[in-house]
Amino acid sequence: MTQRRTALTTRALTGASVVVLTAGAALLPGAGSATAASGAATPAAARAASAAALVARLGDRAAGSYYDAAARRFVVNITDSSAADQVRGTGAVPRSVRYSTTQLRGVLSTLTQRARIAGTAWAIDPRKDKVVVTVDPTVTGAKRTRLNTVVKSLGDRVVVRRAATAFKPLIAGGDAIWGSGVRCSLGFNVSVNGAPYFLTAGHCGNASSTWSDSQGGGEVGQTVDSHFPGTDYALVQYDDSGSDHSSAVDLYDGGSQQITRAADAYVGESVQRSGSTSGVHGGTVNGLDATVNYQEGSVSGLIDTDVCAEPGDSGGALFDGDAAIGLTSGGSGDCSSGGETFFQPVPAALNAEGATLP
User: Fold this and answer.
1) Would residue 274 show up in a list of annotated catalytic residues for this protein?
2) Mean pLDDT in the chain?
3) Residue 314 annotated in active site
4) Would you call 227 a catalytic residue per the annotation?
5) Please, which residues have CB within 8 angstroms of residue 20's CB and are 6 or more apart in sequence?
6) 84: which residues sit within 8 A by CB, 6+ positions away?
């Protein structure tokens, strides 16, 4: 697995200062918020963090946690019934399962070593207590035989699912934030040492060193760091260091959602994605620490969702209320028939870049 880092010299814009990325960008700097927000974590996020912390403490006696939307409760999988009271003590519900997190992570390791085939993806689904392997239509012949052999060796710890279309990074040529012949979506505005930047997808940053807010328009920012494959995020510095760059996700209905914090996703979480091609769509987090094997290379540590996305949505914002969750990477399907989309977690990108939300 490789990473590409691009170091570019920042250049000041001449003429009028850049205040907003207009052209349907996923994020509108300085936009008003249609939804009240605070910097504090929501009760659901706090319970998710509590459940995750307990799973970590229990080690092999646990096997992940998730939110049961129908019952409106968090569930912690346990492999040792003596841990049930500890689970109840956090306000979550214990559920006895067969396989521990360690056993399921062993499955991920085997898949990574023996089945890293373009057109496949995998993640642990704690609701199934299994690793879900998704296979797109490009996996045929010898590649499919190889995958089947590995999956069979893993027994009932694995369930296989078919994707309707090929996995691909969701980049396109067109509008929103334009690079050198490519179109992507802006994710979240951030600050680094007090200067304004924004995050987008790494495969977008690899594709272009400069960005504009209109097709054929003047430069508004330059890619200063980009990672893909391996991970999938890029950091772009605004040319105008005095530009207004508060964080608000465009809801494509005339309103916007103010973003005040970053948060880790949890399985079962209801999330929304905003992108320049398809606007705003919602769905559910189905897996964490997912790996997707694109034709261009493998990316790991992703959020697996059933949210749809289309070419040009790459880099766009995944959010839950006022919380920044992820950056659109890629997937399969579309917003007419539905699909599966993977997201780079925002907290990991912020930490790697030393960046904060404005």
Assistant:
1) no
2) 88
3) yes
4) no
5) 28, 29, 30, 31, 213, 244
6) 78, 94
